[in-house]
Amino acid sequence: MRKEVFYGVALDVGRAVAIALGIVVASFFLIRIVPGDVVDVLGIQGDMTYQQQSKLREQLGLTYSWWEQFWLWSTMMVQGDFGVSSRFTVPVMDLIRNALPPTLQLGLMGLGFGLVFGLPLPILAVLYPRSPFPFLVNCLTIWSITMPTFAVGIASVIIFAVWLGWIPAIGNVLVPAIILGLDIGGTLAKMFHEDLKTIQTAEFIRTLRAKGLSDARIVMRHMVPNALAVVLALMGIIFAGVLSGTITLEVVFGLPGIGSLTLGAMQGRDYPTVQAVVIWLGLVVVVANLLTDTLQRLIDPRLRRQR
Q1: Which ranges of the chain would DSSP assign to H, the alpha helix?
Q2: Is the whole model's pTM more than 0.85, yes or no?
Q3: Domain made up of 2-304: CATH architecture
């Protein structure tokens, strides 16, 4: 069994490394496909002569070929140096460190709301199938599938900030966290509810009922622990959803996090900042999925036998 687990984990690590390398290469070349560079943006915004623009391109290394730029940049990156922002002339990692706390706050709050919305409702829906709880699970699921986070965020700003004046238009964290939580909770509730209903029809559940155990005890002591495996299986996807939703909502609500930093860097063609953000976010998602897969292999005997 140990060999099978080790073999499976080794395959997962190999795939993770390959994906990480793909993210590094893609983050460098894809942004350069976009027309224009930071010098063009600065030239439009200010009064720069052609000679000044040419000199600035030489200073930033933009006159080299893409492959030469990639070699120089990757050499610096493996040493932990992601370069200097071409817009703010400060180390890129300093910008990321300053933008990280608002992103973590929103992401953790959204994940917390998602667990609150997504876990209790399916349990109550199974315990009380003729109550409104199954309907609420369906409503939450439909909401998460059909309502784009960006559109809900804009609508919330218009309704609660502009029309009602209940929240500030910029800088509010609670409302975007609830929106993010609803999106996460819908995905979680759908899968958790379906897994609970599947387990409910299992033979060992009928045996427990025949022994006289109450529905509440069967659900909480036997069904929920088994169904929570689906939560673990979804954690990688949920984590990626938290990141994407957080970045989107930061832009809508004007929060000074990674999302706003990335948008500004994209608009200003700040190559080093965009590359660093994409790489770090990509690595976080890859590591989260790798940890999820590893835990599943250790917990689920069926995955230990997969080769």
Answers
A1: 2-33, 38-45, 50-60, 66-77, 92-118, 120-127, 133-146, 149-156, 174-200, 203-210, 215-218, 224-253, 258-267, 271-299, 301-304
A2: no
A3: Orthogonal Bundle (1.10)
